[in-house]
């Protein structure tokens, strides 16, 4: 995974609705085929093939990925680290007056945007691209969004729950304990727990979020079997992972493995 941005492809032939997705990184997605719906009690937003959706970090949605009308849902997704978004604001201060996106935004994927987007995808997915080139390509996408009137808010200081999620994210299967996580931050277990409690979080909640959200990503972007995904996410059994996943997202992981 790149430190500045991440490229993913979400693909499925199965219609599914995911309960309460929390956006962890500022993200922009391009619907290649099928239709994405973002749903709230007050209404929703529809993004058919050819549309771009923009999701700021911290937003929460119920998400429907619908293969219709093409028969397969495919979306390319770029996710930007807080450091890269901060770098964008330092480098392109002329966009500071634009109100940052709230909830979601959308625009048409014209030829210029598609070209910039796919250059970023190619750089991020290449094993030979330099870090400088990856950052340049990702910043180009952020610049095109800004010129269309869409910017992400400056990230500010990361909270402790977000720090914990970012620590455990690359290795969700590891044996993470409160003591081990606290040691990584050069603090005590009690201090870490107190700081998380001030944010209404716990270490176990952070671990659960990371493991299940990683599971959802792998189900949508890989061909791994559910048992393999469960192990990768730190679950000792297929059944425990499936039960926790269904409770969290509203459907069993096997639904995405027809």
TrEMBL record:
Sorted UniProt keywords: Activator, DNA-binding, Transcription, Transcription regulation
PROSITE patterns assigned to the protein according to its UniProt record, in alphabetical order: HTH_ARAC_FAMILY_1, HTH_ARAC_FAMILY_2
SMART domains: HTH_ARAC
Domain HTH araC/xylS-type: 162-258
Protein's name according to its UniProt entry: Helix-turn-helix transcriptional regulator
UniProt source species: Acidovorax benzenivorans
Database matches in PANTHER family: HTH-TYPE TRANSCRIPTIONAL REGULATOR GADX
């Amino acid at each position: 995974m790149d430190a500045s941005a991440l490229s993913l492809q979400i693909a499925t032939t199965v219609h599914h609705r995911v309960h309460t997705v929390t956006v962890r990184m500022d993200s922009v997605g391009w619907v290649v085929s099928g239709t994405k719906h973002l749903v709230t009690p007050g209404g929703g937003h529809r993004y058919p093939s050819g549309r771009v959706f923009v999701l700021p970090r911290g937003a929460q949605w119920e998400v429907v990925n619908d293969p219709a009308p093409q028969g397969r849902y495919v979306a390319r997704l770029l996710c930007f680290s807080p450091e890269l978004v901060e770098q964008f604001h330092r480098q392109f201060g002329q966009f500071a007056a634009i109100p940052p996106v709230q909830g979601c935004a959308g625009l048409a994927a014209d030829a210029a945007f598609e070209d910039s987007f796919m250059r970023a995808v190619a750089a991020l997915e290449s094993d030979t691209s330099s870090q400088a080139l990856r950052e340049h390509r990702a910043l180009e996408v952020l610049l095109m969004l800004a010129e269309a009137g869409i910017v992400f808010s400056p990230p500010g200081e990361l909270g402790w729950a977000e720090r914990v999620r970012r620590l455990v994210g690359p290795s969700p299967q590891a044996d993470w304990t409160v003591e081990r996580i606290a040691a990584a931050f050069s603090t005590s277990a009690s201090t870490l727990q107190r700081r998380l409690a001030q944010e209404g979080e716990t270490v176990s909640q952070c671990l659960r979020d990371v493991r299940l959200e990683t599971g959802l990503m792998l189900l949508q972007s890989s061909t791994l079997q559910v048992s393999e995904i469960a192990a990768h996410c730190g679950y000792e059994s297929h059944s425990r992972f499936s039960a926790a996943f269904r409770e969290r997202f509203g459907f069993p992981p096997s639904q995405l493995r027809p």
